[in-house]
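If I may wish for something, please sit down with the protein I am sending here and say whether tokens and residues agree:
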Amino acid sequence: MHKIWFTSDHHFGHNGIIQYAGRPFESVEEMDETMIRKWNEKVSDKDAVYYLGDFALNRPERLKEILKRLNGSIYLITGNHEVSALSCKKRFEWVKDYYELKVNDDTVPGGKQKIVLFHYSIRNWNGKGKGSFHLYGHSHGTLEEDVNSLSFDIGVDNHDFYPLEYQEVKAIMLKKESALQILRRDPTDSKAIENLL
């Protein structure tokens, strides 16, 4: 079975992001090469990657070279830095501003897991409270984790510059769901919630 991956905010070619996001690289070349390697360590050519924005801030010619090296079919949800990526539209399966993905999963009610994909964090999304997940980017790990929400920042700065596979996303959300159940029973039981997350 082919895998489904999620990631965002690589900012390929963007020297300023190293300092802004506190990335552990000496140069933009080292950053780009590390992120390409980590992408390809996980993603195969037959896999799907849902990319939640801010692909690159470099020349389109350079981005074309990077895109040729990345495995998988890439679906781009646009961020606020997509000039280079939009000039390489043919490399993407599609380009959208927002998307509601339904992943076949026999372990969830109805056999499909809905995941709302958007570059920005949303406080209230379609299906929130009914098991729908929300993945976002943009914030580079600066937003405080919301234990009351089945959402999180999928950006590379939060995941050691690796994409996350659907089962990894689901595992994180199941922990959050358990934390929500504890909060509903006893809102003061912060110790149990800390142990879960």
In short: The mean pLDDT is 91. Residues 166-185 form the longest helix (20 residues). The beta strands are 4-7, 48-51, 73-77, 92-96, 98-104, 112-118, 133-136, 151-153, 164-165.
